[in-house]
Amino acid sequence: MLMRTDPFRELDRLTQQVFGQGPGTWSRPAVMPMDAYRAGDEFVVVFDLPGVEPDAIDLDVERNVLTVKAERRPSATGDNVEMQVAERPLGVFSRQLFLGDTLDTDNIKASYEAGVLTLRIPVAEAAKPRKIAIESGENRKEITA
Q: Which tens digits make up the pLDDT trace of 124-140?
């Protein structure tokens, strides 16, 4: 049997009960931690979703708004299960990203491994830098636009 000896955790639990948050919820806002960076000709967005099954993740893009929804379900269920400590947030988590017009939202690739969701969003061809030739009599130069 697990023993709870941290008085602050007990205070969090009591605060949740007083302010109407049900059992199994988290005392702090539940978020999906995320990293985003550009790698060459694509943007990479990485979400931490530990304990979420792949079939409980939903990705949707509408008008350059990417919505990620994930549901963490209880791992211990059944008639003879008596929860002793419930600190992991459960339920549906959602996050929206506003994508620029320079990204190719039709070709987003998603992978999920070891609790990490990785999205790869290519930069649209029209947004990539290109060389433009300038002709001027005898000189001919190329500049990047």
A: 877 667 778 888 766 55
